[in-house]
Every structure is written in structure tokens, then in C-alpha cells.
Amino acid sequence: MSEKHEALLSFARLAPVIPVVAIQDARRSIDLAQTLVEAGLPVIEVTLRTPDALDAIAAIAKAVPNAIVAAGTVVTPAQINEVADAGARFIVTPGTSPLLADALAKASLPAMPGCATASEAIALAERGFRILKFFPAGASGGSAWLKSVHGPLPQLSFCPTGGVDASNAAAYLALPNVICVGGSWVVPPKALEDGDFETIGRLAREAAALRGSLP
């Protein structure tokens, strides 16, 4: 087992749910991370969908040492160094081109590359990746897809994201090849915008209480 895979495995097993957040204002990031960590969700995926994303990653990495901040929506090799410099602990991609997959395989940070088909999963496995993001999970076959690929690809674990919410997260987590799930429902954009960390904390505690069968 490679050092990077071991690190990613330890992160993925810390909690059943990885909150996926788009932070519009980096000044909210520290309070958000502290709220999520205290609620039992220490792994946080900050997506590179906003101008403040890198600043938010840097703020969390510096001020909330108990948080494991991941950089999500990484889509180019150039972003790998940017998120590493900001303090991200690992990388998540929504999908993975061959060029990006090669760059991730050589990167210093662990990565959870995204796939939506069995062919994509096999191509990533050929490059040494064992924990993959399944995205968009709901639109790409959901639990049925995960059940179908477990037989031919038993060495792979998945973090389904996209269409995962409080109503179906437990069903995903019960699958033998699901190590955790990713979801945006834990941090509603309006609650984050309003600084409503009471609501976010409640949703995070409910998510942290979800338990499934880990591979």
C-alpha cells in the first residue's frame, strides 16, 4: 500500500460524510470548519468553484488544525500545485482525463479522482488509485451501479457524490464498496451565507451519526 493511498484511506475513514462546500466568502471558512469538526465531520471538501476557494483552504489549514481540508473540483494539472501551496491535504476531481490522472499519480498529495463509468474506474485503477469519487452518483446509476461494479472491481472503494442527501446516504454507506459519501446538504448555501452555524452544526451531527459498512 502506497503512502499516499494509506493517507487517503485514513482520511476517508474518519467520518461517513465529507461535506462538499462552495465558499463564497473566505471569512466564513474558519467558523464553518470549526463547526464541522466539533460536530464530528473533520474532512471538508472545499470546491474550486469560487474566487475565494484557495483563500478558504489556506485559512482552514492554518486556523483549524483538526480539520482535513480537501480541494475539490480540481480539473487541471496546474491546480494541483495551487491547492498544495494553499494547504490542502488531498485532492478530489469531478472527473479525470488521462492528462489529469497522470499528473495526480505523480503529485505529492493523495487524490480521490472522479469517475462515472466502469471504464474510467479501470483506467484509474491502472494508475494505482484505489479510492475513487463516483460522480455524479445519482445521475450515473447510483447504488445499482456501485453494486454492479463491486464484483469485477472488488479492489476499489468509492465516495459517491452528487444526488446524495440525508434520505439516501445510509443506503449508500451500507454498500461494501462505499467508504464514505460526499454531500452538499450538510452545508446549505443560505445557512453559510447567513452565518447560521447552528443549523449547519445540527445537520453535521446528524450526518456524523450515519454509519455504514466500511470495506
Structural overview:
With 215 residues, the protein is an alpha/beta fold. The chain has helices at residues 3-12, 29-39, 53-63, 78-86, 98-106, 118-126, 142-150, 169-173, 189-194, 197-208; strands at 17-21, 43-47, 68-72, 90-92, 111-112, 114-115, 131-134, 157-160, 181-183. The strands form 2 sheets. The chain has a 6-stranded parallel sheet with strand order 5-4-3-2-1-9, sandwiched between helices. A 3-stranded parallel sheet has the order 6-7-8. Strand 4, helix 5 (98-106) and strand 5 form a beta-alpha-beta unit. The protein is globular and about 45 Å long.
Largest sheet report:
6 strands, parallel
Gap from first CA to last CA: 15 Å
State the shape: globular
Q: How much of the residues is beta strand, in percent?
A: 15-25%
Quickly give the structural class: alpha/beta
The Rg value, from CA coordinates, equals 16 Å
In helices, the fraction of residues equals 40-55%
Query: Got a strand count?
Result: 9
Mean pLDDT: 96
Q: Number of helical runs?
A: 10
Sheet with most strands: strand arrangement:
5-4-3-2-1-9
| Low-pLDDT residue intervals, each spanning 5 or more residues | none
Secondary-structure element order, N to C: HEHEHEHEHEEHEHEHEHH
